[in-house]
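@here heads up, posting the sequence + SMILES for the S-adenosylmethionine run so it's all in one place. Ping me if the SMILES looks off, I pulled it from an old spreadsheet.
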Amino acid sequence: MIRNVLMAGFVLLGAATLQAQERAASLDASVQAFLDRHRGTWRDFNVPESDGKVLHDLIVKRRFTRALEIGTSTGHSGVWIAWALARTGGTLTTIEIDPERHRTAVANFKEAGLDRYIDARLGDAHTIVPALSGPFDFVFSDADKDWYKNYLVAAWPKLTSGGCFTAHNVSGRSMLGIREFLDHLETLDAETRIDTSSPAGISITCKR
Ligand SMILES: C[S@@+](CC[C@H](N)C(=O)[O-])C[C@H]1O[C@@H](n2cnc3c(N)ncnc32)[C@H](O)[C@@H]1O
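bot reply: prediction finished. Complex structure tokens:
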């Protein structure tokens, strides 16, 4: 009797594992096909594919699950971030102020098969970010550069220990707001590194 119950349990577990593996493989195929179809078509200040991959790999490596993106545009980085979160069992909140870009991003997330992992908000991140309760273990800042420091100040207390605040286009230190942002990073209790493989510059700052 006990043997039969155990056997049935193993069979059910095996079937559930197989189903989960099939779902993951089908999602991978859907996202990969989406990225292949859209390669070379990203025109709305989107990150290059190599930078999307940097974000994806960081999330998977550190097993992050609670992500925030500031500046969705039409959703290229969002697709890479959400793809990683689909692997870790997480979700992404992403914010865009431009209605047309927001609409296109929502359509892209659906087309990629990732919409269930994403809460895409239309609005001003200046007010939305401070109002979010968090906690987050991953933040990607890619909206208005002159507000980068303010986003950092608002999001840092909501970042978990070991969580990372990442920011795009930081190699232009002379750009309005970037110097102020980088100077503020230096004051934080964090391990900081600049990913030099990205020409645009991605700063990755993880909380102790
Ligand atoms: C560099 S693009 C983001 C690219 C996107 N991360 C990607 O790779 O696909 C910056 C976006 O931030 C948006 N943005 C600028 N200021 C904003 C604000 N205050 N609140 C929300 N979004 C903002 C812009 O409309 C623009 O679409």
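MO: The first helix runs from residue 2 to 38.
MO: One more: The chain has seven helices and seven strands.
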